[in-house]
């Protein structure tokens, strides 16, 4: 019975995906209605089947079958926590990626590409508790391999291999990383997800690379339409100093730090309980910490902290505060200081950070409409919203894997980019490769680094609904070549090739004698700005008819608008066609990114 | 002892990689010499250690250690058959990818992205014997997953999920695929490699999508500097017809077809032996096949085959010959007929092809110089060249995995793109999902498809040596901002930000008070065409000094050439700096792709 539930759920996903694809490609309402109806029926069947399972009191798999159903059915779906991105979505994702990569090279970065899997020992001991989320490859009689968990560790491995004399100090990587986490697909939290990383390595003067990275992320987020954003910054050395000043025992500093890290999700009272009851911290010490970590601000907060005599007397805190002072000076030169929030509650999970840490957050979170995305691997249904805490419950999924069901309505997109300074990681590799685990981070082979990871899926979850709402195109074909009468297939092919050779993006209907309205409809589905019509006479006399068309959103619907006075089209000489197309206003608007 | 060999080999790889990186980044000769010396010493040690192992008559691992060596050493290397691509290489690869993607959209394609791993059942039964090369993920208490083996099967899965009403008929995918094959790194045959696929799906008029695909690959290969190329084309239905006409029993057709597939690597005599001795074919039947498959040519070969009465009487062959006739007509319209070789010996391995099949080949193969690439995972040493056959020998690698050592000097780059028509694959998925394994490919849910896969690594292996030889830049930074005297760090940052805000790619030295020559050297390492120098006076009076510089290959070495009359630089007003830069000849040449 469980397997018939799976099949139903698989079918619902497929129909869901189809529905969305049709909706986005502007399919006719009748077709949409039919798919919607089928979807409704399937969901009803699923409900009934689930009720039956509950009544039977059994979820054992494979024991019973829905009558009439055959056995060998395979599930047409992507793996849990992964999804396909169809043509319209990819057009938007490529646009976002192009901006990100362009900013990376504007800031002097060069691309690095590392394999999707690494030798397991390379990833071992880098992610603390989260190591359980690493995807391992099956041992098929060779090396022990794991899928990369982020881009930072492969970069550090690469830098250690290069031996520290690598002259390229700014490297970027864009690619997928893998975590066996609980997926919340609609908010862009997946098991396979795309990260764009930019890292600066090498020994430079204090806080200059740090300011470059902060300026870079501000440039990127300003260029992508993610809405208002803030860069929260803190410094590991200031945090450590605060813990020392407040009287946290040395062996409790990391665990208390990870309690502080939860302040963006939990109120102070809960964090304090964790510190005192779970982790045995003296309540008066916790209260002192509470006083410090509630502060947020700009340079004025820095002045206040510098005036705190206890803190200034602590060498770790003092070093961190001096760093922050320098950073603020540089961020003013970069003109991004108004985007910064010096946030004492920011702690960041990873152990390897040694200097400033930061997160970019946006006010907006993904709107509910985005939830119905195609090819969602997870089949969890949102529970009713509850305030403050995430609602999770233990479930067995179709593969018998125990998983938490996450209430999607309670999960924000969260930080869309994050990172920090990690001066010891490359040195760890160099030391381990030299067989000396006791070598310190400052020894030969160590390379100070700072970097940022941008969550491309989270950014896409913010940008995509706006993209759809604005009715942006999802293809860049500029010309559709068609012919009346006898089809003139070979003549169409020749013209298409001629235009493509001039680097114009052209398509035509792959039919021998298609009717003209069918060809127009095909061109309109691609929202092609130029329809070129060939005819016997036109070919003889060496010209073509060109109709210019564009689409506008009117009352939430896309409507074709012909250029003024262009209802009949324009006669253009074949020999000046390319030049003519490139000189039109529609062409220029497209090149300027307005269409 | 074995593990100490591994360590030495790991170190040699690291030093090799370092050496290449330094050489490409134009490092100083003294530094290069030092690395080279160290490399020599390491190789000597390796030789001695290997000799010792041989003398000991033991390769048991972990039993002995080189004196003074500690135990916990990890191997700093990428997984077998995978490699990093450093900044210079990635700059070239991105250039190749950009051309490919641009051609894809010029031909009306839209991007599709599928996950790197699939549910194992999706890949099952698609690759015949080669299924053993699929990388499986470890069962960590969830679904059974495998890394994708190509882009074709995930595409077919996607199309089947979309249910055949998908309106986007031209889809492209660019990404990595995975095969546990014997790597020959220097020739671009790896376990992780990049493929760019373009597929046309849907029911269109005969041979039009087929001609689009052939024209597309000709366009791409002409735009990338791969040298002379040929597209070999054959038709599965013609091959099957030949086998029928020659008298091959129906149950032997596929196995005889795969013998024919080896004709590009083996002489006819060997293939005949395989057919007759291994596969039990009557020698006279084999001889008849031999007569047919030796033919290569253009439209004139088609005429000859059509005149062959036995062949024309065979319905399968007749259908294939008619298809080819139509295809030749269309390929003439696309003006690519001179690139085509109708090659009766082309058979292609995969079972699922149903119509035309094709391969793009180049005369050139990767030159020996490319062998010394960085981060090569395999440590096999080429054996002396032997004629005709590949030289392989069984070895145990560092993980105890048995592997074949391939003589790299005997492996060509081979086909750089290949594909064919597969009208039944999507239908297989639809049928399997509906639980009906007997549904035919022509039933509802079936979608005819044709596609091509371009081997990006193989193309890179051809393009990269020329790229290096021509001394092309490996970075696109246009401006390096520097200052004399007091360093003027904040002023440099302000100018850098100003230029970056105008979308100019700019960098500067991340030091507070760097000496001017050090800044010039840093800019020259990036081969930046504009050096901008700030000074106290310049800032006060609102101008900057700009030096234009370019690099030329003179006697195989890159040499900086100052623009004529520009030895002292030029005074440019700050307010017109952006405009001025964009108006220079160097800038325009760069934009036109000449630099």
Q: Key features?
A:
ligase (chains A, B); alpha+beta; homodimer; Histidine-tRNA ligase (chains A, B); 595 residues; six-stranded mixed β-sheet; nine-stranded mixed β-sheet; 41% helix
Task: Record the SSE blueprint.
Two copies of one chain form a homodimer.
Chain A (H helix, E strand, L loop, with lengths): L1 H23 L4 H28 L30 H20 L3 E2 L5 E3 H4 L21 E3 L4 H11 L7 E9 L13 E10 L6 H16 L5 E7 H11 L6 H8 L7 H11 L4 H11 L2 E2 L1 H9 L1 H5 L1 H19 L6 E4 L12 E7 L29 E5 L5 E5 L8 E7 L3 H9 L15 E7 H14 L9 E5 L5 H13 L4 E3 L7 H10 L4 E5 L1 H6 L1 E12 L2 E6 L7 E4 L3 H7 L1 H7 L4
Parallel strand pairs in A: 1-4, 6-8, 14-15, 14-16
Antiparallel strand pairs in A: 2-3, 4-5, 5-13, 6-9, 7-8, 9-12, 10-11, 12-13, 16-17, 17-18, 17-19
- Give the oligomeric state of the chains in this entry, treating copies of one chain as homo and distinct chains as hetero: homodimer
Strand arrangement within the widest β-sheet of chain A reads 1-4-5-13-12-9-6-8-7
* β-strand amount of chain A: 15-25%
Low-pLDDT residue intervals, each spanning 5 or more residues of chain A: 54-71, 365-395, 397-411
Mean pLDDT of chain A: 83
Outline of chain A? elongated
Protein name (chains A, B): Histidine-tRNA ligase
Keywords (chains A, B): Ligase
Structure description:
Chain A has a nine-stranded mixed β-sheet with strand order 1-4-5-13-12-9-6-8-7. In chain A, strands 14, 15, 16, 17, 18 and 19 form a six-stranded mixed β-sheet that branches. Chain A has 595 residues and is of the alpha+beta class. The first copy, chain A, has helices at residues 2-24, 29-56, 87-106, 120-123, 152-162, 208-223, 236-246, 253-260, 268-278, 283-293, 299-307, 309-313, 315-333, 425-433, 456-469, 489-501, 516-525, 536-541, 577-583, 585-591, and strands spanning 110-111, 117-119, 145-147, 170-178, 192-201, 229-235, 296-297, 340-343, 356-362, 392-396, 402-406, 415-421, 449-455, 479-483, 506-508, 530-534, 543-554, 557-562, 570-573. Chain A contains 20 helices and 19 strands. In chain A, helix 7 packs antiparallel against helix 13. Mean pLDDT of chain A is 83; it is low at 54-71, 365-395 and 397-411. Chain A is 41% helix and 18% strand. Chains A and B meet through helix 1, helix 3, strand 1, strand 2 and helix 5 of A and helix 1, helix 3, strand 1, strand 2 and helix 5 of B.
């Amino acid at each position: 019975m469980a397997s018939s539930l799976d099949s139903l759920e698989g079918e619902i996903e497929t129909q869901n995906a189809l529905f969305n694809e049709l909706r986005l490609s502007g399919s006719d309402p009748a077709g949409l209605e039919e798919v919607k109806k089928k979807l409704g029926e399937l969901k009803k069947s699923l409900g009934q089947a689930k009720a039956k399972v509950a009544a039977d009191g059994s979820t054992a798999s494979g024991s019973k079958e829905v009558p009439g159903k055959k056995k060998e059915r395979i599930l047409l779906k992507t793996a849990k926590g992964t999804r396909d991105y169809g043509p319209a979505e990819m057009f938007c994702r490529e646009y976002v990626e192009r901006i990100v990569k362009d900013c990376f090279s504007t800031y002097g970065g060069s691309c690095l590409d590392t394999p999707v899997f690494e030798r397991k020992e390379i990833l071992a001991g880098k992610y603390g508790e989260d190591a359980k989320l690493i995807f391992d490859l099956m041992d098929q009689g060779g090396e022990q391999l794991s899928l990369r968990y982020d881009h930072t560790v492969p970069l550090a491995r690469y830098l250690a291999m290069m031996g520290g004399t690598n002259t390229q100090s700014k490297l970027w990587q864009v690619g997928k990383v893998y975590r066996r986490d609980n997926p919340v697909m609609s908010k862009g939290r997946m098991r396979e997800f795309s990260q764009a990383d930019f890292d600066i390595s090498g020994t430079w003067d204090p806080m200059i690379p740090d300011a470059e990275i902060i300026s870079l992320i501000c440039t990127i987020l300003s260029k992508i339409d993610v809405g208002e954003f803030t860069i929260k910054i803190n410094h590991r050395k200031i945090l450590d100093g605060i813990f020392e000043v407040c009287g946290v025992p040395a062996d409790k500093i990391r665990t208390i730090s990870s309690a502080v890290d939860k302040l963006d999700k939990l109120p102070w009272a809960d964090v304090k309980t964790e510190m005192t009851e779970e982790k045995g911290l003296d309540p008066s010490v916790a209260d002192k910490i509470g006083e410090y970590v509630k502060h947020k601000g700009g340079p004025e907060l820095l002045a206040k902290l510098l005036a705190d005599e206890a803190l200034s007397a602590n060498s770790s805190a003092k070093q961190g505060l001096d760093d922050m002072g320098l950073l603020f000076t540089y961020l003013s030169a970069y003109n991004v200081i108004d985007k910064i929030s010096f946030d004492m509650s920011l702690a960041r999970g990873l152990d390897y950070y040694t200097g400033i840490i930061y997160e970019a957050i946006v006010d907006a979170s993904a709107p509910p409409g985005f939830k119905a995305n195609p090819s969602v691997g997870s089949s969890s249904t949102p529970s009713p919203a509850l305030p403050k805490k995430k609602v999770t419950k233990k479930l067995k999924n179709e593969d018998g894997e125990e998983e938490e069901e996450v209430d999607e309505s309670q999960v924000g997109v969260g930080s869309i980019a994050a990172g920090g300074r990690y001066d010891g990681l490359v040195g760890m590799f160099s030391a381990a490769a030299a067989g000396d685990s006791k070598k310190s981070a400052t020894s030969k082979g160590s390379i100070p680094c700072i970097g940022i990871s941008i969550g491309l899926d989270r950014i896409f979850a913010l940008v995509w609904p706006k993209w759809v709402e604005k009715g942006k195109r999802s293809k860049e074909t500029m010309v559709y070549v068609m012919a009346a009468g006898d089809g003139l297939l070979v003549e169409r092919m020749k013209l298409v090739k001629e235009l493509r050779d001039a680097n114009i993006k052209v398509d035509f209907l792959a039919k021998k004698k298609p009717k003209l309205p069918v060809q127009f409809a095909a061109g309109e589905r691609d929202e092609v700005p130029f329809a070129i019509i060939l005819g016997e006479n036109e070919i003889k006399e060496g010209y073509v008819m060109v109709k210019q068309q564009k689409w506008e959103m009117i009352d939430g619907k896309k409507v074709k608008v012909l250029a003024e006075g262009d209802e009949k089209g324009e006669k253009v000489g074949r020999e000046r066609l390319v030049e003519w197309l490139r000189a039109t206003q529609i062409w220029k608007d497209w090149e300027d990114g307005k269409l």
